[in-house]
Fold:
Amino acid sequence: MKGEENENMRLCGTDPFTFRRLRLHHTKSLTLGAGVNNILNMKRARQHTASAAVLAVGSELSRRGYDVTFTLGNTRKVDMMCSVPDGKAFKIQVKGISDRYSFFIDKSFFETHPDEDLFLVVVLVPINNDSPLRFFLLPHVDAICEFKKMPTRKRDGRLYENGSGLNWGSVKSYESVF
Structure:
């Protein structure tokens, strides 16, 4: 137990007194009763998956020294603008998914000329909060190529109505360790 506590303190970058106080505080807050357990085990809404994904990408880029700003409003192709100090700016579209399924992306993202300064980052935000986030980074040109490979018809021959998106198989080979 003592070795695990020391390792946790090292990872958190905190002194023994602060670490024990934080652990005690969190232990007390988790033993308040069934209400807390209900909050911890509640189903996550789609917008929370999307928010977690965008914030995680921004956090990882900031941590590595990039300047990051988030877009506001209805920006269909860009969720954030980034740059290296004194470097070239680039744009990122983020998609958060909670499982390995297909996901919707506005068709306008794929129907433009490839933009070398635009990237698609798909973030797998697992339902299980103990599992790590996984990041998949596609340059715009690769995202367009993957979209062109997507089937346009269902198995029964009918056309997909919106057909705008990618599936797990089209992004899994782009897994990236930030």
Observations:
- The helical segments are 2-12, 16-30, 34-40, 46-63, 140-149, 168-171.
- Confidence is low (pLDDT under 50) at residues 18-33.
